[in-house]
Amino acid sequence: MSHALERIAAALERMAPAAAPAPDFGAEAFVWHTGPDRLDPVARVSRVDLSLLVGVNRARDTLLANTRHFAAGLPANNALLWGARGMGKSSLVKAVHAAVRAEGFDLKIVELSREDLPSVGRLLAMLRGAAERRFVLFCDDLSFSHDDQHYKSLKAVLDGGIEGRPDNVVFYATSNRRHLMPRDMIENETQAAIHSTEAVEEKVSLSDRFGLWLGFHPCTQDEWLDMIRGYCTAHGLSVPEDRLRAEAVEWQATRGGRSGRVAWQFFCDLAAREGVRV
User: pTM to 2 decimals?
Assistant: First the structure.
């Protein structure tokens, strides 16, 4: 009987996935993948310089100070960057990371997709094991649908359970929604529940677990033009002001709105027509 149990145990051990190797934290940025669990280094981070982000001064200064405190080993808050599409939420996170590293801090950034939130406990354990390093855990475009249970996994990042969130990890997320869930989901659950406030408290209170809420709102036309001028200056593109303004206004009219993303798209088109490499 004992021999049979030993053979079964050996077979189960062979079937079990191998333990994830300790990652090499030599890079400045990583992407978390599962199946198998691993942190893949990023050779070149896609980002813009902090000085090119226009119209987000308050959010920029707040997030920069919070990140600088964290990198220096001081208390820091998790941050939720929410609001209008294309206004530089994810760009700000990456630009702030680069700015703090330029100050001499060996700060790492780890990108985690929303679909991989159930594995976040394993990721936190891996990062906890590198206590001498500090990590910004970044989840872009975070939101939850009606039947989505991933929000429960997010609490492991924000609260950390019985172990607490690792001291060397801070969590930054971007979302178009302030409460991370669609408004009609909140309203439907409120109407269907006996105790309406209790029905949605668990999900709505998720955003309350972020110490910083940084709102991003649609930009004015002057701010939008300033974004384009900043890109032109940074890349050495010289265009007469009257022509730049006329073409930019026409571009945003065809797109039906203004944002940092639309400004960059217009600049790329303009640079291509002028023969300037970006």
Answer: 0.82
